[in-house]
């Protein structure tokens, strides 16, 4: 490009990052003194979490400011992230506010490979009361005939770098269910069988540290920390060449505990954390007698909790695998459905 700009912007899901994105960002890099790269998605996609996208972008363009968010991280900034299918106006308003809070200066030019670019630039120009240019690149995908949708379904070394492929393919397999449904013992056993890392439930440790009394803020801390532990496990597993990690719980479990423990609505960030996607989500049935270890609630609580899982999973339309029957039957179900490295 012959024209040079002071500040530029590239926005995308980057789910996953591929060669078309790299062409767009590299072109913008050559044309700008400073480049802001924004990435957000609601919902997120398994294998393309905000932590992974942040890593991909930081590794590729460490000289740029890369702002990568999920819905929970947006809450921490005081913003409400729109759904992916929200209107253009909602997306533009969100981006303008996000730029103001993270970049702190107007943008001179928007780079895109889709038709939204000009309207987006016009909105930013009105927002800042100054001109914002639009540069459209490879609109018809001639240089890079690929899409994130296609690569989520079938990752490809032709369009993705090795580091992106490796981390995208590392699956997070989670077991959920009411108390005393075997999820912890089954998850730990499966991790040992496959030689994978197991992400323990932070909530139990935190409950013990708090003397068995938890506040609403404690549950938010639990969900945040559980996500951090998962992200660390995926990074370690990917570096070791493993194809999955086993998660003893999910933030959805923490949200359900909040619904049962407190009359007030859960924090918006906890609701957003509970949207976190998994490659496989196993619901353990409460179909055998509860084992009371001295810390668990009565059987009525367990059945109420299980009913909430069923309701939440149905309302969210999540693809869920189910474990039922005796322990050996559940183990056999897992081995049949969870492939080894």
TrEMBL record:
Q: Which domain of life is it from?
A: Bacteria
Residue ranges of the NadR/Ttd14 AAA domain?
172-330
Q: Which GO terms describe its molecular function?
A: catalytic activity
PANTHER family noted in UniProt:
NADR_TTD14 AAA DOMAIN-CONTAINING PROTEIN, TRIFUNCTIONAL NAD BIOSYNTHESIS/REGULATOR PROTEIN NADR
Q: What is the protein's name according to its record?
A: NadR/Ttd14 AAA domain-containing protein
């Amino acid at each position: 490009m012959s024209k040079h700009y002071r500040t530029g912007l590239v926005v995308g899901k980057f789910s996953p990052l591929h060669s078309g994105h790299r062409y767009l960002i590299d072109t913008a890099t050559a044309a700008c003194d400073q480049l802001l790269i924004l990435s957000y998605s609601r919902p997120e996609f398994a294998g393309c979490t905000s932590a992974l996208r942040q890593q991909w972008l930081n590794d590729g363009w460490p000289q740029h400011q890369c702002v990568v968010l999920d819905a929970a991280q947006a809450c921490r900034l005081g913003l409400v992230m729109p759904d992916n299918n929200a209107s253009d106006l909602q997306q533009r308003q969100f981006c303008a506010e996000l730029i103001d809070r993270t970049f702190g200066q107007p943008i001179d030019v928007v780079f895109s490979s889709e038709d939204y670019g000009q309207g987006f630039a016009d909105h930013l120009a009105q927002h800042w009361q100054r001109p914002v240019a639009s540069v459209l690149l490879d609109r018809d995908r001639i240089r890079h005939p690929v899409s994130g949708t296609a690569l989520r379904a079938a990752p490809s070394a032709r369009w993705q770098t090795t580091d992106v492929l490796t981390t995208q393919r590392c699956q997070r397999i989670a077991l959920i269910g009411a108390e005393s449904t075997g999820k912890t013992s089954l998850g730990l056993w499966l991790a040992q069988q496959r030689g994978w890392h197991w992400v323990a439930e932070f909530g139990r440790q935190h409950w013990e540290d708090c003397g068995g009394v938890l506040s609403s803020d404690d549950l938010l801390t639990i969900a945040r920390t559980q996500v951090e532990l998962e992200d660390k496990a995926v990074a370690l597993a990917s570096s070791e060449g493993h194809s999955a990690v086993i998660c003893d719980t999910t933030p959805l479990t923490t949200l359900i505990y909040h619904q049962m423990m407190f009359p007030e609505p859960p924090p918006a960030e906890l609701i957003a954390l509970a949207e976190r996607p998994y490659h496989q989500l196993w619901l353990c049935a409460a179909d055998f007698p509860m084992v009371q270890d001295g810390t668990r609630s009565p059987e009525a609580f367990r059945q109420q909790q299980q009913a909430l899982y069923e309701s939440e999973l149905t309302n969210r339309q999540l693809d869920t695998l189910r474990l039922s029957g005796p322990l050996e039957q559940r183990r056999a179900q897992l081995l049949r459905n969870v492939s080894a490295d």
